Amino acid sequence: MDRIWQWVLAGLVCVALGAGGFYWWYRQSKLPRIAPPPVAEAPPPPVATPAPAEPAIRHPIEEAPASKEQPLASPPALSRPAEADAYIKSALIEVLGRAEVFSFLNTDNFPGRVVATVDNLARQKASSSLWPVVPTAGRFSTEQRSDGTYLSASNANRYAPFVRFVESIDAARAAALYLRLYPLFQRAYEEQGYPGKYFNDRLVDVIDHLLQTPEPPAAPKVTLTEVKGPIKPARPWVAYEFADPNLEARSAGQKMLLRMGSANAQRLKAKLREFRGQIAKR
């Protein structure tokens, strides 16, 4: 009899457990289901915005400025240096005058001289053998004072004829000639090691560089570089340097303007600004 009750009691326990499990499952199925929180996705890597490309040509040449004078003929396809020199010399004489061209300019390989000199004016050296202008006659002059050697005020007189020549040039006509000869300048620029570069951009940059030349209120002090050894230089005056390190560190072109004196430099700067306005829009 006891064994029967044990089996009955075990059966009741099983029924109770089953009913409890069923009730728990039923309650869970009726509860609102809560969606699991969304998994945050990693943001996409930022897309690098490419830097705007520098324009290939910053100061493009479009057309020659209008001129009241008879327009110059465009240069032909000049393949021989002698032919190019003759054409350029004729064009320069037409714009600047015969006496002025023969007095102040070197017309052989004129495009190559212009390109090389313009490029070098903003650098430390600009060899006079490559200049398109004839070097100024006379020698660099100084004056001795109690505290050292200074650039002589009379030194500026050497440059007066050249400055007057530059001031006499009609900027519009000079720019018109430059634009018509520009294919020759561009070709020379590329041949001198700048393929794909635009010469007019370099010219405008160098003009801007020269316009930044300081104008000392008084004649600057200079020192003569000592040359050691038994052989003395034939032209010792070319070894003078500015005593002020800031002036001596200037480019070849800026030091040329400094040696001319402030008055001459101001007059040349004014002409450079006028010419720049003809070949650049900004």
The largest beta-sheet arranges its strands as 1-2-3-4
Roughly how many Å is the radius of gyration? 41 Å
**Share of residues in strands:** 5-15%
Q: Report the end-to-end length measured between terminal Cα atoms.
A: 118 Å
Q: Give the helix proportion (percent range).
A: 40-55%
The shape is: globular
Give the number of helices: 11
List the keywords:
mainly alpha; four-stranded antiparallel sheet; 11 helices; 49% helix; disordered N terminus
Please give a structural write-up:
The chain is mainly α and 282 residues long. It has one domain (81-279). 49% of the residues lie in helices and 5% in strands. It is built from eleven helices and four strands, in the order H-H-H-H-E-E-H-H-H-H-E-E-H-H-H. A four-stranded antiparallel sheet has the order 1-2-3-4. Helix 4 crosses helix 8 (199-211). The protein starts with a helix and ends with a helix.
